[in-house]
Specification:
There is one protein chain. The protein is an alpha/beta fold. 36% of the residues lie in helices and 14% in strands. It has twelve helices and 15 strands. The strands form four sheets. It has a seven-stranded mixed beta sheet with strand order 2-8-7-6-5-3-4, with helices on both faces. A four-stranded antiparallel beta sheet has the order 11-12-15-14, covered by helices on one side. Strands 1-13 form a two-stranded parallel sheet. Strand 9 and strand 10 form a beta hairpin. Helix 10 crosses helix 12. The chain is globular and about 75 Å long. The N and C termini lie far apart (67 Å).
């Protein structure tokens, strides 16, 4: 799409029309101490032509090459049908913003409505909003929402599993740390990787506002969601399910957990039509029970009929004050993430319920096959003895970070090193397989990993001998 910048005359005319002398005056409410002091011209390269810029970018692009990817850890490589981004790339979707004028935005509103409908059915919940920024911010908003809802609990204590995605936990702490909310981390079992129910019970006498359950958890293992949900509700705490929505096609959805279901479900919907793309942008989701809907951030689209009885779509519920109330607003979520929500909607529509279930089952099967192959390598062990979805934790006999670096040199992105976030899992890696991996890919992974481990063991032995001789 063409980009046409404003000319200096355009800028001058606009400033004159509003009675302002300069662009800087538009930002006069920002304190001087917070303003940038200007660009260091010595560090800014000279302008180049469009032709030169294209050549530079092409040369940079040539350095990129496709590798076998076995990294998951919250962002997953799934097949995206070509039709998804062909449709999303159309101008009416690509450039659309929040559709305030319903009469002119029926297409966009209907897409949002269909997205909400599919997400509620997938998660067994009653209401969905029109999407969030990503899984981490969705969880933070869910915690804030739970605190607003559970007014009977004055403790503002929220139980968080230690086996939650680490970046989600960091984002959550950043967002709630100044809001008098206490996050209490609950340890996981070192044998199963799942939340220790005995640790939860230590808080039986405490006033707990909400309990977060990760399903599957960061290690890929499956939690006993029914037991935790029932325990939390017996304590009058709200339950937040932070889930992989694809896994919900073969696992019990949050709306059916325990006796009455989770209160809020959230997480990342990146697995639905959104490519990895060097880290984003991604898409988060949030669903809840009908009774909690007025504390849900974002927007909700409803279906109705006009005076002629024709079907129509409109913004049914939106926290409009979010735009103007600043610190008093319900949330800072003030857009509908329309582009990525559209991609997710098209992806879900193309695959359908049967297709999504098939993707989930194949991903689980590929991971199971990978685990079986890799654990035949000497001293490579599966860490957690617990059912998993499509991620596993492996313990290696040599330095995990060095192994990952060596594997990358051989064209395989072999996993995620866990020691930085979980010191007790030293030399352990989180490995993921999805429907995109073939049996040949799994064999390549096994072959390369075996080669790297043998090489590193040999190098270690040589160094020890040399050290002894010295």
């Amino acid at each position: 799409m063409a980009f046409i910048p404003h000319s200096s005359d355009d800028i001058k005319q606009m400033l004159t029309a509003i009675g302002v002398n300069s662009v800087e005056e538009l930002f006069d409410e920002i304190p001087e101490t917070l303003r940038a002091k200007g660009l260091d011209k010595a560090k800014v390269p000279a302008a180049i032509s469009e032709m030169q810029a294209k050549r530079e970018f092409s040369e940079i692009a040539l350095k990129d090459h496709i590798q076998l990817n076995f990294i998951g850890a919250g962002a997953y490589e799934h097949h995206i049908p070509a039709a998804v981004w062909e449709i999303v790339g159309r101008g009416e979707f690509l450039t659309a913003y929040t559709p305030y004028q319903a009469e002119a935005s029926q297409g966009t509103l209907q897409v949002i409505y269909e997205y909400q409908t599919m997400m509620t059915r997938l998660l067994g919940m009653e209401v969905s909003n029109a999407s969030m920024y990503d899984g981490a911010s969705a969880l933070a908003e869910a915690v804030l929402m739970a605190v607003r809802l559970n007014r009977k609990s004055t403790s503002r204590k929220v139980l968080i599993p230690q086996n939650l995605q680490p970046s989600y936990l960091r984002t959550l702490k950043t967002i709630v740390k100044n809001q008098q909310i206490e996050l209490i981390e609950v340890p996981f079992c070192q044998k199963t990787g799942t939340t220790l129910f005995s640790e939860l019970k230590k808080y039986s006498e405490d006033h707990i506002t909400a309990v977060v359950i990760a399903q599957p958890n960061f290690f890929g293992t499956i939690e006993d969601v029914d037991a935790i949900t029932t325990w939390a509700h017996q304590k009058n705490a709200l339950v937040i399910g932070c889930v992989n929505p694809l896994a919900m096609t073969i696992l019990k959805e949050p709306g059916l957990w325990g006796d009455v279901g989770a209160d809020i479900a959230c997480g990342s919907a990146q697995c639905f039509g959104v490519p990895l793309a060097s880290g984003g942008p991604y898409i988060g989701f949030m669903c809840c029970k009908q009774e909690h809907v007025r504390q849900m951030p974002g927007r909700i689209v409803g279906r109705t009929v006009d005076l002629d009885g024709k079907q129509g779509f409109t913004l049914t519920l939106q926290a409009r004050e979010q735009h103007i109330r600043r610190a008093k607003a319900t949330s800072n979520i003030c857009t509908n993430q329309g582009l990525l929500m559209t991609a997710a909607t098209i992806h879900l529509s193309l695959l359908g319920a049967e297709g999504l279930t098939q993707v989930a089952k194949i991903s689980h099967q590929r991971t199971k096959e990978l685990a079986e192959k890799l654990t035949t390598i000497d001293e490579v062990e599966l860490v957690f003895a617990k059912p998993f979805f499509h991620e596993i934790v492996l313990k290696l006999p040599v330095n995990a970070k060095i192994v990952l670096n060596e594997m990358a040199q051989l064209g395989v992105q072999a996993g995620f090193a866990l020691a930085d976030d979980y010191p007790i899992l030293n030399n352990c890696i989180l490995v993921c397989a999805t429907e995109t991996k073939t049996n040949a890919d799994l064999n390549v992974y096994k072959q390369k990993l075996e080669e790297v481990i043998v090489k590193l063991k040999k190098s270690k032995t040589t160094n020890q001998v040399n050290a002894a001789l010295v």
